[in-house]
## 1
Amino acid sequence: MRGLSGKVAAVTGGGSGIGQAAAIRLAEEGCMLAVIDRSKTGAKATVARIREAGGLAEAIVADVAIEADISAAFASVVDIFGRLDILVANAGIFSAERDGRVHGLDKSVWDDIVGVNLTGMYLSCKHGVAAMRATAGSGAVVLTGSPTGILGCTPGSIAYSSSKGGVHGLARVMAVDYAAEGIRVNVVVPGFTLSPIVHELVADPVVMETMVRSIPLRRGAQPVELSGAIAFLASDDASYMTGSLMFVDGGLTAV
């Protein structure tokens, strides 16, 4: 894809799932990668795969819900690479067991899920965009959204759905705020993706069958199937896209 080779990209939640796949794909396209994850083991595993393929990557351990962590993480990105061109704000959590309907949802669960999925996105964008403006002067931001932030397709997951709806709003206002500075902001909207955060769902064959039945392609996505869309939104091939939601959902939202 055009305009990715030689760029510096940071991926939050890059230690597994969609984030890991995105980091590896961006490295394949010639980017230098900062892999940010709260799991040291996960971040290092992604970096090892990139380096084995001849790419350049560094692991940075940070919890996106803690501002001191994420501020230090982006300071490290600039220290290591000298600039930041691309931010993939992807880190997120999901819990079918802990989340629930609004009347009975414990506030601690709401705080935990929204704290990572929405506040963590805000903090990643706050410090990532600041680093981008101070170094590259322009760039691309890609956030990971969800159909649950638009449709009621995951009943009983009020915190998760609310957090993802907030991500969509965050991205669209950011797109307007930074358009004049040459910073594009878009959202990739994955459908049901077989990543580690949905292990509770896929462990139950009945739930798995129910989920797949609602998808026209009749299967969940592999994380690698999202990586091309993320790379595209970060590339110059998407130079006239900002404030957009790109659906990669097997047809889920077409029904």
Note: The chain has a mean pLDDT of 96.
## 2
Amino acid sequence: MEKKFILFDFDGVIADSFQPAFETQKIICPHLTEDIYRKRFEGNINDWEEPINIHTEECRHDIDFFTEYIPRMKNEVQIVPGMKEVITEFEKNYTLIVISSTITSPIQEFLEGHDLANHFAQIMGNDVHKSKVEKMKMVFEKYGVEAKNCVFITDTLGDMHEAEKMKVGVIGITWGFHTPETLLRGKPFCLVEKPNNLLTAVADYFNVLK
């Protein structure tokens, strides 16, 4: 039987990180609102474009997001309740990989702090590649896996668009950065409201493809 892969977004899905991330970005762009920040994730966060990319004279281009964010991440970001148990259960039957726009090392440290790092075959952050399309290609090549044997769990429309380019199916979660209404625009296999429901959703996804 072919091994199935679950690709996890990190921020919003595993880590409850919206508020610290937003507040850090607001240091750089003081005019930023939560709605504008969420809208940036409707595409790849690394290349968001006009009219979202509006800078004012107040914007601090001398501040690096990750330099400011990583200390806050270590101190403030909590794991989403229930995700540890779900990841532990998933690892029994699937290969798990993190594909994130946060850089790899703090994700690794976060997962180690929750005794979860060894549950993942690989952690692919922004330093591996800024494009999640390219990171999915890397997964296909390294593990010899096809798109049909992968599913991506995410909380943003932008991730769904990138997964679609690689023909990878998507399960959306509603406790992250984007609302259910925004996520539905990405035509996910389904939306999940609680971490524990992911177990059934992933099983259903792969069963439908048999």
Note: The first strand starts at residue 5 and ends at 8.
## 3
Amino acid sequence: MNDPRNQGRSRRGRGAARRGFSVAEMLVALMISSMLLTATLGALQGSFKAYKATTESASSHVVARMVMQRLTTMIRTGEDFGPYPINPILDPVLVPDPPEIEFVVEKNESTGFERVIRIERRDTAEENIYALWYVQTDFFGGVQDGEAQEYPLLTNVQNVTFTLYYDVGPRLEHATIDLTIRPDDLDDAAIAADLESASMRMVTTISPRRMD
């Protein structure tokens, strides 16, 4: 004989098994999922941009160090530096404006050949951002031989200063290069937030070797 209490419990069990999520529960679940997804995407974007900033900064630092090392070598082995101060006795320190330094890297007195290198700052299309240019000119007997060869050594330069310390002659005692560069911008990596790499500053002082 069937027990009515058992039949009631059986009907309640089948009803509970058929019950699903309510609309409110679905909305709460969707809201939580969207919040988690947004937080995940934000963290992923931050990781991408931080990696990009680190990569750009490291790359720019390596290039800038190579340029500084090349400039140091050329100045150390150069001679007949310019521009010259008006009076190296009264005012032996010169800071050219716009920044530049010029010197002879190769000379043959028997043929009258001279190779002159000029390192100069030039404007770019971007405001307050410059480029450091290398200009090479050959001379025979004081007359320029052909067109000068020139190309950019370094871009994204925020500031560069050449401080030239002269002795009588005028002879260059030493030169100080103060260079500030900006790593490549991150506009191509931007998604929603802004992230900028810090500028890098390098300062070096070089004394030319005395050939006499």
Note: The two ends are 126 Å apart (CA to CA).
